[in-house]
Records
---
Amino acid sequence: MDTIEEFLKNSNIPANPSIAVRIHEPLAKHTTFNVGGAAALWARPNQKGGVDMIAAVFQRSRLQGLPVCVLGRGANIVFSDDGFPGVVLDTGGWSGVETFDQESGRIVFRAGTRIDRAVETSAKHSFGAPDEEASCDVMSVLLDLGYGGLEFLAGMPGSIGGAVYMNARCYDQSIADRLVSVAIIDERLRHATVPFRAAEWGYKKSPFQNRGMFITAAEFSLYKKEKGALLADMEAHRADRERKGHYRFPSAGSVFKNNHAFGIPTGKIIDELGLRGLSRGGAMVAPFHGNIIVNAGGATAADIRFLVDDVAQRVKKSMGFELETEIVFM
Ligand SMILES: Cc1cc2nc3c(=O)[nH]c(=O)nc-3n(C[C@H](O)[C@H](O)[C@H](O)COP(=O)(O)OP(=O)(O)OC[C@H]3O[C@@H](n4cnc5c(N)ncnc54)[C@H](O)[C@@H]3O)c2cc1C
C-alpha cells in the first residue's frame, strides 16, 4: 500500500472534522513566491483539532517514516519543483489569541496567527496560504486591545510561528525583543514551554531552527499604546514597504542575511555589482532592490535556486564575501 494511503488509513484523519487534508496539494499556492511542486500530503488542523491534532500528525508521520515540514504562511520558504515527499503540516487553522492579561500586557498568540492580514489581502498577486478559515491577525488584535510592542512587523507577510522560528526582524527590532516564552512540541514529541533566553537568540536566529520542532504558540510582552498612534505606526511601515516595492511581485522578501562584519548591507553589495535585473527563467533580481529576488512570471524553484547561487558566487568572486541565504529551501 502507498505510504500516504497507509498514513490516512491508520490515522483515521480523513474522517476527522478537526483537520483538512489533501493529497498532491500544489505548494505554489501556499507560498508567497508562488512556486513549488505538490505535497504528498497537506494537512491543516483547525481550531478544534489544535495542538492535539498537530501532535497526532507528527506522531503518525514519525511511525510511518514520513518527513514532516511545518508551514506557516509560506513567506520565507521555497519548495522544490518536485514538491515535498511527506506531510506538509500547515499551521493556518490554528490561530488567534490563547490568553491575554491586561495588567501585565502578556499575550499568547497561536502559531498560525497571521502577522498582518491587511497587507496580504491588498497585494495584487497571491500572498501565501489561501484562507479557508476566518483567522485573526496580530495587527488587528493590537488595535482592538490598544496595546503595542509588535507593530513594527506591520506589512510583513507571515505567521507568528514562522516569525518566531526565523526571529523576523525589521526597523531595527526583532520579534525576540518582545518574546517571553514559546510553546513547542519538540523532536521527541514532548510538549514544553521554553522561556526566552537572550543568549540563544541572534540576528535572524532562533533556537528552533533545523531541529524538527513545532512551535504551537508564543507569549509576548506588550504595553499600553494609544490606538491612533498604533495605527499611524502600522500605516507608516506598510507605506514604507509599498514604496520599497515589497508587494509588486511574488517574492519571499530578503534573499540573503546582512552580515554586519561586511560593513555594508547585502542589498548594497549586490547593487554595486550591477546585479539588479539579472535573471534566470522567470526569476529576477528585483530591478528596485538588490536583495530581493522576484517571480517576474512563470519562475520555477530551480530558477530561483540558480539565481541565488549565481548572485552568491559573483559576490564571492568580486568581494570575497560569503553570503548566507535567509530564505529556506525545502
Ligand atoms: C514582501 C515580503 C517582505 C518581507 N519582509 C521581511 C522583513 O522585513 N523581515 C523579516 O524577517 N522577514 C521578512 N520577510 C520574510 C517572512 O515574511 C518572514 O520570515 C516570516 O516570519 C515568515 O513567516 P511564515 O509563517 O510565512 O513562515 P514560512 O515561510 O511558512 O516558514 C519559514 C520557516 O519557519 C518554519 N516554521 C513556520 N512555522 C513554524 C512553526 N509553527 N513551528 C516550527 N517551524 C515553523 C518553516 O518550517 C520554515 O522553515 C518578508 C517576506 C515577504 C514576502
Note: The pocket of flavin-adenine dinucleotide is lined by residues 32, 69-77, 91, 111, 156-159, 161-163, 165-166, 168-170, 208, 213-215, 246, 251-253, 328 (CB under 6 Å).
---
Amino acid sequence: MSATTIHNFSDIDFDRPGKAHYEVAFHHDGTWGNVLVPLTVIVGARGPGKTVACFGGTHGNEYEGQVAVWRLAQELDPAELTGRVILLPRFCTPACDAGTRESPLDGVNMNRAFPGNPRGSITYRMADFARRFVLDRADVVLDIHSGGRILRFPMCSSFHEVADGTQQQEMAAAARLFDTPFVMVYASAMASGLLTDEAEAMGKITIGTELGYGEATIRQGVRHAEVGIRNTLRHYGLLAGELERARPEGSPPPRIVRAIRLEDYVPAPISGVYEPTAEPGQAVTRGELVGRLYDFDYASSRPLDIRAPRDGWLLVIPFAAQVEKGQTIVVVAEDADYSAPNPLP
Ligand SMILES: [Zn+2]
C-alpha cells in the first residue's frame, strides 16, 4: 500500500473509513526539499468511537516506540476497529534518520518544542502540526520514549500531576495498561515544551513511557509498547478482546511512584565517570550508596560516594559512564496512589 504525499495538511483525510498511509511534507529551512514524516490514519469500519494518537520517534535515538508503532500501522485492521487511530511511528523523522535525540536540521529537541510555531524552524513547525491536526483530534495520546544514551530507567509508563482530578485518576489507571513494573509520576518543572505537557493541558488522557536504554532496541521494551498500545485500544473500546499482561502471569501490578519535587533530581556534583552500585527499580533507603563518581583527572583521587536522598525506588541511573557536572544522576521516587484502579487481569 503506497503512501500519499501531503503538502497541505488539510488534505489528510481523518474521517474516511479504512487505512491510509501518508508522508507529510515539511519544507527544509535552508534549501529546496522536504522532510517526509510518515503518518497513518486508521478509521474503524465498526463505527465511531474514541481517537487514540500514538507517537514513536519523538526522540530519534529511542527505538522501541519506532518499532512498535511502525508495526502497528501495518497490522491494525480497520475491519476490526471502532473509532480512529492516528500513528506517527517516527515523528521527529530527521532525528530518527540520524539516530539522534535532537533534530540535526535545526538542533531542536522535539520534546521541548511544543506548542510549536507555524513560522518557526522545522521542528517547531512539525510540533505545531501535531498539536493542531493530531492532538486536537485525540481523546488519548501515547508518546513512546526510552532512556536514549544518557539515562536508564526501569521499564515504566509515566504522566505528570495535573489539576483536574478526574483526568488525573484516569491517567493513573490508563498508565497501568502498559504493564510495566513502575508507573512514574514526574516533575513538570524539570522541563517544558513536552508533547505530553501539551496534550495534558489540552485535557487529553496522556501517557508517556521509558521502555529501554542505550540507543538499543530492548525486546521487553517493545513488548510493553505493543501490549500497552493494544490494551489502550481495548480499554477505550476501539478493539474487542480482553486486556493482556506484558509480564508473566502472577507478576505484581504496576507500582505507581512519584518524584515531583525538583530536589528529587540529584545533579552530578562534578563531571566524571559513574559507577552504579544499584540497579534501576531497586528499593533503596536514605543514605544508601547508589553509585560512585570518579574524577580521573589526578592520580589517587578518591571517588565521590553518591547516596540515595530518601527512602524509595531508584528510578534513574546514568547509562553512559561519562556524566557531566549538573546532569541528573539519581532520582528516588516514593510510593503514590491516586486512587487509581488496576485495569489489568
Ligand atoms: Zn525520549
Note: DSSP finds six helices and 19 strands in the chain.
